Amino acid sequence: MVPSNGVNLDKLKELILILARHKSVSNLGVTKLAKLVYYIDAEAMRVLGDSVTQSEFIKHENGPVPSRMDRALKQLSKAESIRVVKEEFFAHQLKKVEAMRDADMRPFRQEELEIVDRIAKKLGQVSAAELSSLSHKEPAWREAEYLAKLDPELIPYGTEEDPDEL
Question: Which sequence spans correspond to the domains of the chain?
Answer without folding.
Answer: 9-143
